[in-house]
Structure formats: C-alpha cells, structure tokens
User: Fold this.
Amino acid sequence: DDYITKPFSPRQLVARALAVLRRAHRAPAPVVRQAGDLALDSSRRELRFAAGEAVTLAPLESRLLEYLMLNAGHVVTMEAIIDHVWGPEGGDRDMLRQLVRRLRQKIALCGGTPDSLPADTGTLPYVETVPGLGYGLVIPPSQGKD
Assistant:
C-alpha cells in the first residue's frame, strides 16, 4: 500500500516499512451484531441485552449465536448450523442440542426465556426449536429486526 521511488535512502525505507507494520498490527474494530435488543460482541464473545450486564460466551456458543443472528427470523437446518459452528471437524446433532441448551441458559442470564417456546413476558430474542428441521432466533415483535 506504499510505493517508494528510486533513488531512496535506507532511512526512508525503514521508516516506511515500520509504518506499514504498525498499521498491520492494529486491532480490528469490534464486530457487534444486533438482534432486537440483544447485542453480541464477536471479538470479546460478550452477550448483552440493552443496558444489562455482559455474559461471556464460549467460542462455540458465540459462533452459534452469531449465525442465528445473521439468520434471525428464519429457521436454519441442523446440518447448516453444524457445518458453520464446527466446520470440517464436524459436530453432531447431540452436540448441537447441548450447545443450544447452554446458549439458552446464557440468554436467560440476560433476562430472557430459557425455553424454546415464547414467553408472554419474554423481552429477549429466544432460540426456537423447529422439530425435525433446525433452530431459529425469534425476535419479539416489540423489538423488530435490526
């Protein structure tokens, strides 16, 4: 991303090389995904609801929630989730069920509902099970989709 014309001094070459290295080592800007009032900071793996406390997610929990947030309002097949979360190493349906259970528990820590069914008073998005197909992130109507 830089160009030096000839002739150049060794001092100028070193200065420009150091500048390029400094730019390359900057921390990437945090990616924060929103689904209703739920926010996920992918770089820190933190889940937060509105102004509430942050809950730290395990790496697989974070990948699962991020994928569901990207597909909020839609059902995602178990196979697609397994491919996205575990990649080539592969997981299985039982591992996915356990991961969803842990994610629901962490969402509940933020004040939402841990169940797969909507709660009348639930204020957080929740993970819905669609039997035989997969999972989806449901956003309560009062929150809309961002």
